[in-house]
Amino acid sequence: MAIRLLIVDDHSVVRQGIITLLEDEADIEIVGEAADGVEVEEAIRSCRPDVVLLDLTMPKMSGIEVIKKVMPAFPSVKVLVFSMHNQVDYILAAVHNGAAGYLQKDTSRAEILSAVRAVSTGELYYPPNVSSVIIQNLVKTPMVKSPREPVAGGHESGASVWDKITSRERQILECLIEGLSSKDIAQRFDISANTVANQRASIIKKAEVKNTAELISLALQDRP
Fold first, then answer.
1. Which of 178, 190, 208, 213 has the least C-beta neighbours within 10 A?
2. Is the distance from CB of 28 to CB of 112 less than 8 angstroms?
3. Cα–Cα–Cα angle for 156, 203, 117, nearest 5°?
4. Which residues contact 134 (CB under 8 A, 6 or more apart)?
């Protein structure tokens, strides 16, 4: 089944350029366009995309606001940022609020295709320059821990994430901290990408965080 892609950008030339680049791909179907953030919710409801290729700088509602205010209503839809900005603040805001990937607009066609395909399967896609920004920031300014809720049986769940996971999950977590993709991790341990995704999801659940970025931050803070 083809990946259903919604393109959101306030410049019609950019939208048309993306369509021209991707329209011949058999596994990608461009199901709609939106010219600003306000149009996104209606477009998602009518087009039912798997992936939203989202610009950040738009009138009426910015891409970051879309991620924060609109996307929580559509948890199965993945956001792939496609922006001219490479500033740390933009990257971190997008990642912190749940963007599955971050590309700059000078990205090659091949990398756009790789990113769309990766995030559609539940993977994260951050090129090396973006991964570097994320990791460096997490090391310098680790996430402040929030109070933990008691778990069933009355025990506190505030133990280190490293103490909650299996030995293989520890290996996976170390790889995530290194910035490796699911594909790279799968190749390193000779397992499937789906297995990696399942183990990552298990670690996130045990750590009681929302996404991989928060997981890495917490793991760096708790690292033995």
1. 190
2. no
3. 150
4. 91, 92, 95, 126, 179, 213, 216
